[in-house]
Every structure is written in structure tokens, then in C-alpha cells.
Design goal:
87% of the residues lie in helices and 1% in strands. By secondary structure, it is mainly α. Among the domains are: 224 residues, Helix Hairpins (Orthogonal Bundle); 192 residues, no CATH class. It has a two-stranded antiparallel sheet. Strand 1 and strand 2 form a beta hairpin. The radius of gyration is 65 Å and the shape is rod-shaped.
Length: 659
């Protein structure tokens, strides 16, 4: 009995060692997997944090630039309002001055007509000139000329006008008419200069307003683009923040699990060491007890004193019992022994054997016992082989499940990383494509505007040259004519109804021609300035366009280069993602197959009614009982006495006091 206890203690110790080794391996593998997942989560958190900071920085920068554009637009609008206000004031001043010039020219024209139609006396002419002098818009030179004329010629005429008979009919207004004509020409010239100045001012205002409108449109376009980019960055920051929170939560959960698992494993390790110490102490105690019982003090004294003690008590000796092994009483005791063992071991085999012993001949029963012992040993060997096979299959299946689970988790993490990167690449490529499209649109629009502007400038230059050429021809015609007429000596008749009085040679309108030539010079210089200014504007516009094209080309090439790089990376990541998905699918199938095989192993290798060690022990006890029953029937090596028919595996029940 003590030997069985030692064997059972050692078997239990070995079984617990195997179980602990499996649990320890589970702790080690799980901690490694979780630590790996935590490290990956930390790396992903840093990457997501960098993405969030980048998006937030872009949002802040774009918000500032949008605000700056808004400030610029307000400034442009204020400048436009001020320019419009100033332009209205200048226009009002121009209209008033132009009206004054026009009224003065009309008045001078009417005065000249009146003087030519009838002979006006000098006092009347002086009164008219005095009224003309009071005109506020009369130039200073003209006022001085009127003053000199009034103080000189008119005063002499006034003296002569004291003679009534001459004053009423004498016409002395020729000098007045000449002066009025010159004054009219002067007013016309000044009004023309005023009109040119107004035209230049209006053109300058139109250019300023065009620049301001273009600046406002450009700023509003920048606001729209940057607002869109800002919204995309806000969405990117939100998405990265969500992924960051999810990753952090998963990482914290893994960390909490690892902490709890480590504590549990450490506690289990301490418990295991304590139990191993107790098991060693139990084995040591049992072995010492066996040693004591097997010594001379117990075993020797039992052989010396127990037989006489049993005889003194009136019982049968072992020898007497064995000598009658084949007697009917021995058969009945063997049957009683088998029945008792079948109940103790819950063995239907022993119960059936006891029943057979009651009915069958005794010799046949002994053969049956021998056959059963052989059968049980065969079952024991078969079950041992099955146990070895189960252990090997479970070990292999466990490693396969753990390896494939680790591979699935690693592939899943890789796929998530690739999908996240592909999402970022998709957004970047969309932004680059939009940027390239905007550059192409801007280049096309600028080219269209440049072509129209160039055509307009070239046409303007051609027309300015044509104007200069035409004016040069007109100047030559007038110059040739008045040069020729200046050499004329033929006298001119004043009036057809008067007597033919010729007082001077006809030389044409030399003074008027001088004014006309001056006016043509002004127009010619205006055309020349227009040609020069247009050429300068064309050169500046072409230079600006070339700079814009160079900048656009440079920006487009940079974006296209970045686009190609990201497209290449996207293609590589997509192919890698496809391979990872294929690997994951294959590995998941292998893991599923391993899990299915594990489920098939459970009924015969895991979820059994009794543990393998208990089945082995019960079978050994059953075989021992059969052997002992066979020995009883054969009358070999069994205890003697009427009450000594209990299994030796139980240490006997001899009703002997060893004290």
C-alpha cells in the first residue's frame, strides 16, 4: 500500500510538472505576444501623433493665411473705394472746368461772329472784353493780353471816340478779332489738354481698379483653396486622433492584461514551488515509512510473533488457507473477494467474472481470469500508445495553433498599417492631382490672357505707328503748302462788293497753321508715347508671363515628381497588401484547420471521463485483483485465514494488530 502511495505521489508530481510546464510556456508565449503588440502600438501611436501634429500645424498655418487674405481683401476694397471717391471728385472738377472752357469758347466764337457781322464801336468792344476778362477760367496770359490791349489800343480809340462823327462808323476791331481768335485757339488747346489729362487719369483709374479686382479675386481664390485644404487637414487630424485613441485603448488593455498575467504567473510559480516541496516531503515521508516497516523491528518481529498470535486467537494460518485453495470454500472466498473488488473498483469485468465463477467449472474460470489479464494488459499497451499519440498530436497542434495565431496577429497588424498608409497616400495623390490640375488651368488661363493682351498690344503698336505715319504725312502736306504760300506775292482783295483794294499778298493761315502744326506735334508725340508705353507694357507683361510659366513649370514638375514617387509607393504598398491578405487568408485557413483538428482531438485526448493516470491506476489495480484471485484459486502466495481475502493492493485486512 505504501509502495502504491509512493508511485501515485511521484505520478502526480510528474503530471503536475507537465501541466506547469505547459502553463509556464503559455505565460511566456502570451507575454511575448502582448509585449510585441504593445511595442507595435507604441510605434503606431508615435506615427499617429506625428500625423496629428502635422495636420494641426497645417490647420493653424492655413487659418492664419486665410485671415491674412481676408485682411488683404478688406484693404483692397478700401483702396478701391478711395480710388473711386477720388476719381469722382476729379471727374466733377473736370466736368466743371470743361464746361467753363466750352462756355468761354462758345462766347468767344459768338463774339467773333458778332464783330465780323457788323462794325462795333470801340467802347462796345471794350465793354465786351471787360466782361470776358472777368471770366474766372481765363488763363493768366490771356488776361495780361487783354489788359495790355485795353490799356493801349482801346484807350487811344476812346480818345478818338470823343469825335462823334468818326466814332459812330469807324471799325477798329480787327486786332480784337485776331486776339479773340488766338484766345479761342488757346482755350481749345487747353481744353484738349484737359481732355487728354482726363483720359490718362481715367485709364490710370481703370488700371488701378483692374489690379484691385484681380487682387481681390486672387485672394478669394486662395481663401477657397486654403479653406478646402484646411477642412481636409481637420478631417485628417480627426481621423488620426480617432485611430490614436483606439490604438491607445488597445495598447492600455494589452498592458493591463500583461500586468495581470505576469502577477498570476508569478503567483502560480510560487504555488507550484510550494506544492513541489510538499510533494517531495510526502514522497520522502512515505519512503521512510516503507523503510521502517521493511526493517527488522517490524517485518522480523511480525514473522516471529504474528503466526502464534493468530493461532492463539483461533484463526486459520496462511498455510492452512493455501492448502485448501481448490476446495469449495476457497472458491466461495475467491468469489467474495472478486465481488468486493468489483464494488471497490467499480469494475464490471470483475463482477462478471465473479458471476461466471458461481456457475462455470473452476478450471474454466482460471482460464478466463488469465485471458482477462492478457486482455487488460493489451488494452493497457494500446491506451499507452494512444496516450503517446495524443500527447504528440496535442503538442504539435498546440505549437501550430500558437504559431499561426501569432502569424495572423502579425499579418493583421501589417495589413492595418498598410491600409493606413494607403489611405494617406490616396489623400496625398488626390491633393497633388488637384494641385497639378489647378496649375494647368492657371497656365491655360494666363496663356489665353497673355495671347489676347499681346494681340491687343501689337495692334495698338501698329495703330500708333500708323497714326504717327499719317500725322507725318499731314504735317508734310501742310508744311509744303504753307511754305509755298509764304513765298506768294499776289495781293488779295478784301471784299467783292468793295472797290478792288489790295493791301497785302495772300500767304494763307500761317498763324493757324502754326497752331495746327503744334497740335499735330502733340498728337504725334502722344502716338509715339503710346507706342513706347505699349512696347514697355508688352515687354513687362511678357517677362511676367515668362516668370509665371517658369514658376508654374517648376511647381508642376515638383508635384509630378512627388506624384510619381507616391504612385510607385502606392503600387508597392497595394501589391504588398494583396500579398499580406493572401498570406493572412492562407494562415487563417491553417489556423482554422488546426482548431478543427484540436476539436477532433478533444473527445479522445482531452475531454475524457477519467484522466489517463486514473485509468492506468484502476487498470493496474484490476489486473492485480485478477492476479490475486488467480493466485487464490491456485493456492499460491495468499494470506491464510477466513478473513484474509482482500486485495494486497489495499495492504490487506488481516485484523492483526502490529502495535
Amino acid at each position: 500500500m505504501l509502495g502504491s502511495m509512493v508511485q501515485k505521489a511521484k505520478a502526480d508530481k510528474q503530471a503536475e510538472s507537465v501541466e506547469w510546464a505547459a502553463f509556464k510556456q503559455f505565460c511566456s508565449d502570451t507575454e511575448l505576444d502582448k509585449q510585441t503588440a504593445i511595442q507595435k502600438a507604441d510605434v503606431q501611436k508615435e506615427a499617429l501623433k506625428a500625423d496629428i501634429e502635422m495636420h494641426d500645424s497645417e490647420v493653424k498655418r492655413l487659418a492664419k493665411e486665410i485671415a491674412d487674405h481676408g485682411t488683404d481683401i478688406e484693404a483692397y476694397k478700401k483702396d478701391a473705394a478711395k480710388a473711386t471717391k477720388d476719381r469722382r471728385e476729379e471727374r466733377d472738377i473736370y466736368m466743371a472746368t470743361h464746361a467753363d472752357y466750352s462756355e468761354s469758347i462758345d462766347a468767344i466764337t459768338n463774339a467773333i461772329g458778332a464783330l465780323k457781322k457788323r462794325a462795333m464801336d470801340i467802347p462796345q468792344a471794350a465793354a465786351f472784353l471787360q466782361s470776358l476778362k472777368s471770366n474766372g477760367n481765363l488763363p493768366a496770359d490771356s488776361k495780361r493780353a487783354l489788359d495790355n490791349f485795353l490799356q493801349g489800343g482801346i484807350s487811344v480809340a476812346s480818345k478818338q471816340s470823343q469825335e462823334p462823327e468818326v466814332n459812330a462808323y469807324e471799325f477798329q476791331s480787327e486786332s480784337i478779332i485776331t486776339m479773340l481768335v488766338e484766345l479761342k485757339d488757346k482755350f481749345i488747346e487747353e481744353r484738349t489738354t484737359l481732355e487728354k489729362k482726363e483720359l490718362v487719369t481715367k485709364q490710370a483709374y481703370d488700371v488701378v481698379m483692374l489690379d484691385l479686382r484681380n487682387a481681390i479675386a486672387s485672394a478669394e481664390n486662395e481663401i477657397d483653396k486654403k479653406a478646402k485644404s484646411k477642412a481636409e487637414n481637420v478631417a485628417g487630424s480627426t481621423e488620426s486622433s480617432t485611430l490614436f485613441d483606439e490604438t491607445k485603448a488597445a495598447r492600455d488593455e494589452d498592458q493591463e492584461y500583461v500586468t495581470g498575467l505576469t502577477a498570476t504567473c508569478q503567483e502560480k510559480s510560487a504555488d507550484f514551488k510550494t506544492r513541489m516541496t510538499l510533494r517531495d516531503e510526502e514522497i520522502e515521508a512515505i519512503e521512510k515509512a516503507i523503510e521502517i516497516i521493511s526493517g527488522e523491528a517490524v517485518s522480523g518481529n511480525a514473522e516471529k510473533h504474528l503466526p502464534s498470535l493468530l493461532q492463539a486467537r483461533g484463526g486459520l494460518s496462511f498455510a492452512q488457507f493455501l492448502s485448501s485453495a481448490e476446495s469449495p470454500s476457497n472458491q466461495q472466498k475467491a468469489i467474495a473477494f472478486l465481488n468486493a473488488e468489483s464494488q471497490r473498483l467499480d469494475s464490471r469485468v470483475l463482477s462478471a467474472l465473479a458471476t461466471q465463477m458461481t456457475a462455470d467449472p473452476f478450471k474454466k474460470v482460471k482460464k478466463m481470469i488469465s485471458d482477462l489479464i492478457a486482455k487488460l494488459k493489451a488494452q493497457e499497451e494500446e491506451e499507452a500508445d494512444h496516450k503517446a499519440w495524443c500527447d504528440e498530436e496535442l503538442k504539435t497542434n498546440k505549437k501550430t495553433r500558437e504559431d499561426k495565431t501569432s502569424e495572423v496577429e502579425g499579418l493583421t497588424a501589417d495589413i492595418e498599417g498598410l491600409e493606413s498608409r494607403l489611405s494617406v497616400l490616396k489623400k496625398d495623390l488626390a491633393a497633388l492631382a488637384q494641385g497639378i490640375a489647378e496649375i494647368n488651368a492657371a497656365v491655360a488661363k494666363s496663356t489665353e490672357i497673355r495671347n489676347k493682351e499681346k494681340a491687343t498690344n501689337e495692334q495698338t503698336i501698329v495703330e500708333a505707328v500708323e497714326g504717327q505715319t499719317a500725322i507725318a504725312k499731314a504735317k508734310k502736306i501742310l508744311s509744303d503748302f504753307y511754305k509755298k504760300s509764304g513765298d506768294n506775292t499776289a495781293l488779295v482783295q478784301q471784299k467783292s462788293e468793295e472797290p478792288p483794294i489790295f493791301d497785302s499778298a495772300f500767304k494763307g493761315q500761317q498763324k493757324a497753321n502754326s497752331n495746327v502744326m503744334s497740335f499735330l506735334e502733340v498728337i504725334s508725340s502722344d502716338f509715339a508715347r503710346l507706342e513706347t508705353d505699349t512696347k514697355k507694357a508688352e515687354s513687362a507683361a511678357q517677362s511676367e508671363y515668362d516668370d509665371l510659366m517658369a514658376d508654374s513649370t517648376k511647381s508642376k514638375e515638383a508635384k509630378e515628381k512627388e506624384q510619381k514617387t507616391k504612385e510607385k509607393e502606392q503600387l508597392e504598398k497595394t501589391e504588398e497588401l494583396s500579398n499580406k491578405n493572401d498570406d493572412l487568408e492562407s494562415t487563417q485557413k491553417q489556423l482554422d484547420a488546426a482548431m478543427d483538428y484540436f476539436d477532433k482531438l478533444k473527445p479522445s485526448c482531452v475531454n475524457v471521463e477519467q484522466p489517463y493516470e486514473e485509468r492506468v491506476q484502476r487498470r493496474e489495480e484490476e489486473i492485480a485483483a485478477l492476479k490475486e484471485a488467480l493466485e487464490i484459486l491456485n493456492g499460491e502466495g495468499v494470506p491464510q485465514g477466513p478473513d484474509a481475502l482482500y486485495s494486497s493492493t489495499q495492504g490487506g485486512n488481516l485484523d492483526v494488530d502490529y502495535r
